[in-house]
Amino acid sequence: MSWNAVFLLLLYHTAQTTMGRRWDRAVLFPAAHRPKRSTSTPLNPVLQSSLEDVELLYEFLLAELEIGPDLELALKDEELLSLRKAANFRAICNGIIPKRIPDIRRLGASLSSCPGVLRKEDFERTVLTMAYVAYRAALAHGHQKDVWAQALLSLFQALRHDLMRSSGPRGSL
């Protein structure tokens, strides 16, 4: 076997392995790994990297949120909106987490069949999806309220299952 053939075989294996790993990462939230030309937000943004970030995320969720007709989430608090982390929050909420019931159901099914413990960013995005679904359930009426509530229950059960699988902390904060 010539060196060129060995090199091509290694290159092929590396490409296949890299693509496989990227796909594995992108299964739950594929939009996190797709670059968007129209925004300057980083690829695969994450909110929580310190305890202060966790507290800031809590403030974002407690702040008054508004869902526009295009399903875009907006923070109404000008002070919070001016923070650098608010851009990542908007990018995750408006570009990564699912907002339509079929996509949320698909996420719930993927979470329930996910082997191992969720990575920190997937856990964070699932929690944000739950917050969005809870907000939509609170605004819905009749049958739609039941549909949103069922989606919320599905996500909650998947996260509870993930928490039971993990016995230690989920990475460093």
UniProtKB/TrEMBL annotation:
InterPro entries: FAM180. Keywords: Signal. Residues 1-20 form the signal peptide. Transmembrane segments: none annotated. Coiled coil: none annotated. It comes from the Eukaryota. PANTHER family: PROTEIN FAM180A, PROTEIN FAM180A-RELATED. This is Protein FAM180A. It comes from Echinops telfairi (Lesser hedgehog tenrec). The gene is FAM180A.
